[in-house]
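Sequence, please.
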């Protein structure tokens, strides 16, 4: 029982830390979203899958004209 309480306190503390960090970064205007090249974030540039698919779709439209 005591172990469960300690584990829950640690989980809640970590969640509070993540929320605090996100609020702090949002106030500072930092973009917190995708990091790296996972391709899951549409607003990221570089090597994201969304950027690749967008350029591929645009080039195929040009070929159709």
């Amino acid at each position: 029982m005591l172990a469960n309480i300690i584990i829950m306190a640690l989980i809640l503390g970590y969640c509070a830390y993540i929320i605090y960090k996100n609020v702090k970064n949002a106030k500072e205007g930092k973009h917190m979203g995708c990091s790296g090249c996972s391709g899951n974030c549409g607003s990221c540039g570089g090597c994201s899958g969304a950027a690749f698919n967008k350029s591929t779709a645009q080039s195929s439209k040009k070929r159709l004209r």
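The chain has a mean pLDDT of 73.
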